[in-house]
Amino acid sequence: MIWRFRSDGQWREVPAESGAWSTVHNRFRQWRDAGVLEALLEGLMAEAAKRGEAAFSLVSVDSTTARAHHDGASTRILAFACLRAGPQPLSHHPRSTSPLSQGSSAMSHASRELAVVTFALGGAVFSISYCAVTVTWKQRTPLLWILIPLAGGIGTGLFKGEPLNMILFSLGGGLALLTLMLFFPRGRRKELNRRKAAGETIESKEYEPPSWVVWTIVVGVLAWACLSYFLYSE
């Protein structure tokens, strides 16, 4: 993490000896969201003030360094507060209570809930619809095999360093859109499955949905992927 901010490089350029860049990035996001980095900074400031090593004569205002008067009341108050507080354990440092920080935290929490709910609803809609157009448990068995590509998609996304929220949100919308294929040709799929269960041979082309359904799904999946990236990309 220190290399990343000193060099102003990309996360993917983190030196190999530091480990997988995705692991470093995920750890940074976890520490940032938990307020660990903010607590570290506050602890270092308090420790430096206790040792008399804090340079409070320089104050940063809007990315500009300005020298403060040594008799300034605010400087004395800040130094006195730091000396009185002393270094505290990280777990005792409260997170920032500013409106901006609270709003960001609330949005992050809501985004996690939205991603999980979308994934659960998408999976439920697809599963229920699949069972609705099949007539025997043997025909419903392939539904279990969908878990393999789902797990593979989640694992691949995490390996590439993508946020889990974005992966779940994308997969949930994709599953809901794929449900359209189960109901076209309109009203015929269940009848075809019923005839197939009775022993009749059904050609695969009879299950093919109209081309407009395929294109609708393709465009919908792409649009949903763009929305997922917009909402959850770092």
Structure, described:
The chain is mainly alpha-helical and 234 residues long. 64% of the residues lie in helices and 3% in strands. The chain has eleven helices and two strands, in the order αααββαααααααα. It has a two-stranded antiparallel ribbon. α3 packs across α4 (73-85), α8 packs antiparallel against α9 (164-178) and α9 packs antiparallel against α11 (211-232). The radius of gyration is 28 Å and the shape is elongated. The two termini are 16 Å apart. Residues 69-109 have low confidence and may be disordered.
Summarize this, please?
The protein has helices at residues 2-7, 21-34, 36-50, 73-85, 99-132, 137-140, 142-145, 147-159, 164-178, 189-197, 211-232; strands at 58-61, 64-67. It has 234 residues and is mainly alpha-helical. It has a two-stranded antiparallel ribbon with strand order 1-2.
